[in-house]
Amino acid sequence: MLAQMISEELARILSLKEDEVERLLEIPPQETLGDLAFPCFTLAKTKRKAPPFIAAELEAAFLEHKEVTAKATGGYVNFFFHRETVAGQLFQEMKSNQYWQPNSGDGKRVVIDMSSPNIAKPFGIGHLRSTIIGHALYHLLKKTGYDPIRVNHLGDWGTQFGKQIAAYQRWGGDVDLKQNPIASFLELYVRFHEEAEKDESLEDEGREWFKKLEEGDEEADRLWTYFVKESLNEFDRMYNRLGVEFDYVLGESFYNDQMAPVVKELQEKGLLTCSEGALVVPLEDADLPPCLIVKSDGTSIYATRDLATAIYRHHVQKGEKLLYVVGGEQTLHFKQVFHVLKKMGYKWADQCEHISFGLLRLDGKKMSTRRGRVVMLEDVLNDVVAHAKAKIKEKHPNHPHLHEVAEAVGVGAVIFGDLKQDRRLDVNFRLEDALSFEGETGPYVQYTYARIQSILRKGDKLNDSRHMDWQHVTNDEGWSLLKVLIQYPNVLTKATEAREPHQLARYVLTVSKKFNQFYHKYVILADDETVRQARLILAERTGEVIADAMAVLGVKTPEEL
Predict the structure, then answer these.
(1) Closest by Cα among 510, 509, 506, 516 to 538
(2) Neighbour tally for 60: CB within 10 Å
(3) CB of 123 closer than 8 Å to CB of 409
(4) Taking a C-beta distance cutoff of 8 angstroms, is the pair 553, 504 a contact?
(5) Which one, of 507, 499, 387, 500, lies nearest residue 440 by Cα?
(6) How far apart are CA 3 and CA 11, in angstroms?
(7) Number of helical H runs and strand E runs in the chain
(8) pLDDT digits (tens, 9 = 90+) for 29-72
(9) In this structure, is the dihedral angle defined by the CA atoms of residues 271, 274, 280 and 286, taken in order, positive or negative?
(10) What number of CA atoms fall less than 13 Å from residue 435's CA on the CB side?
(11) CB atoms < 10 A from the CB of 444, how many?
(12) 3-state per-residue secondary structure call for 110-152
């Protein structure tokens, strides 16, 4: 609202468009320099004047303004709002639907490919990033007016299932499949790769079993169905714990009958070339290696399935944008797939986006399914919840909701600890860091929210904010907090368009820090009713923003810790 107020006036004075002016507005590096700043350098050429001269003219134009004072400093105009005059308007703005639901998406449908664990593999901590980044993006898109759809694209097809079947046939009797089928599947998979290093014929055996699976072999299909059923049971437990849901759970196998038409279309459009017995689409025009479509043994590959999947999501699911929340190691693959779609003549290929992310390491160690170095997500969550429970119990031995709160804090610490990072960077998860109630952590934000709720429970019923004396919250700390709160819709929009949940996580950390600075300097439950009421409203609005932002990120905010 503050930026809009300035941009409207500047646009009128300069005969420019409001959005053009608003894009130029900056937040000064120090609050003492002003609330907003407008750089005049880009106007020098069109106005044929030096930036300091333009700034001085703009300062003069704002001399009689009732809500803001302008001050020229070099080539900048710094704006200082009249705090008590504007504060009431800001609090009213925070009640509007546009504040809580900025509509930049205009109902566009977005299909999000997220989570995508592999069947017959454990739900390790390595699956966490795609799951929670995709989950946060879903809520950001929904919050900003898009029509998002969550698709769990299960890895349930490919040569690895031939290897899994071969391992099961050879050593299935050596493991306890009833007690812990997923761990047993992993044990068999790891053993296959260990034995294959000594006996190369095992790789051929695995490929042969996958070929049988694609051809509908009864035994191969029976075992594959068993792997899928047991894996889904395991995945559902973990999704429930993370609070993650899906609109569709469709494995790669769902698109099996759609791959032949894709290959046929590629042939008809003259895009396929034979290379060493395999069929590929050359991509020299995009400076990319050829995209393999059909292997030399006649079996499909995941590029073929991803082409079929993209066409299905656009044509059937009506996705106007297709997002793929997949690790950065698949960057080349998606460049190839998207370019093949373009060569096929699909203009909507430009609306396909690879939302890449870095590796998740546990205390600096990378996980590997083939080598068995998999850290179960459930084990990590159990560990972090147990530590959270111990911390809470130290201060509140008789907490009535100890397990529920510890679960919210522990799971929330893991989710927030990931999402606060730029998704493209590697994340090194350390339990001690993630669970701290101080610093840039989920528990710190949750504790701030719980503190606010405690204050509100002790306070009076709040009066109508339109008749409030705002001077008691427009001191430096209160004004600084209020300016951050009013940025919420812009943060939501920018985080959505950039596909960057960490922008929202960083924002809610700033909100928490600003509130705590205010709380430590001023008594919110002051004896004077006018003082108390104004400060309670500021606290209430802060709590609402924290709870809303954390819900978008997929983190719960208990009212008591």
Answers:
(1) 516
(2) 11
(3) no
(4) yes
(5) 507
(6) 12
(7) 22, 13
(8) 999 999 999 999 999 999 999 999 999 999 999 998 889 999 99
(9) negative
(10) 20
(11) 19
(12) EEEEECCCECCCCCEHHHHHHHHHHHHHHHHHHHCCCEEEEEE
Q: Is the pLDDT score of 366 beyond 80?
A: no
Cβ neighbours of residue 290 closer than 8 Å, sequence gap 6 or more? 273, 275, 280, 281, 282, 283
- The pair of three-digit structure tokens given for residue 162, joined into one six-digit string: 């031939």
Backbone angles phi, psi at 290, to 5 degrees: -60, 145
> How confident is the model over 297-349, as pLDDT tens digits?
877 788 999 999 999 999 999 999 999 999 999 999 999 999 999 999 999 99
The encoded tokens of residue 496 equal: 């959505």
Which tokens hold the place of 396?
Answer: 């509140």
Pairing of strands 278-281, 147-152: unpaired
Q: Cα dist. 373→168, 278, 365 in Å? A: 20, 33, 9
CB 152 within 8 A of CB 309: no
Q: How far is CA 399 from the centre of its chain?
A: 32
> Would you call 50 helix, strand, or coil by DSSP?
coil
Q: Please provide the DSSP assignment of 269-295 as one string.
A: TT--EEETTEEEE--GGGT---EEEE-
Q: Which candidate, 418, 351, 408, 331, places its Cα nearest to that of 136?
A: 418
**Phi then psi dihedrals of residue 438, to 5 deg:** -125, 150
Instruction: pLDDT band for 372, please (50, 70, 90 cuts).
Output: very low
Query: What's the CA dihedral at 173, 177, 181, 185 to 10 degrees?
Result: 0
Helix 442-458 × helix 529-553 angle, to 10°: 150
pLDDT value of position 369: 45
Task: State the Cα–Cα distance between residues 301 and 303, nearest whole angstrom.
Answer: 6
How far is the C-alpha of 445 from the C-alpha of 87, rounded, in Å? 25
Task: Please give the distance of CA 463 from its chain centroid, rounded to a whole number.
Answer: 37
Q: Are 519 and 413 in contact (CB under 8 A)?
A: no
Torsions phi, psi of 156, nearest 5? Answer: -120, 20
User: What sign does the dihedral 204-210-212-214 (CA atoms) show?
Assistant: negative
For the chain, what's the residue count? 561
Tokens 């300069």, residue located: 14
The CA-CA-CA angle for residues 299, 235, 210, to 5°, reads 15
List b or e across 248-259, with b for residues whose CB sees 16 or more CB atoms inside 10 angstroms.
ebbbbbbbeebb
Task: Report the b/e string of 373-384 with b at 16+ CB within 10 A.
Answer: ebbbbbebbeeb
**311 residue type, one letter:** I
Q: What is the DSSP string of 462-509?
A: P--GGG--GGGG-SHHHHHHHHHHTTHHHHHHHHHHHT-HHHHHHHHH
Query: Using the 8-state DSSP alphabet, how is residue 461 labeled?
Result: P
Amino acid occupying residue 141: L
Q: DSSP for 536-560, please give it.
A: HHHHHHHHHHHHHHHHHHT----S-
Q: How far apart are CA 157 and CA 301, in angstroms?
A: 9
DSSP annotation of 236 reads: H
At 78 the three-state DSSP class reads strand
Q: Which amino acid is at 268?
A: E
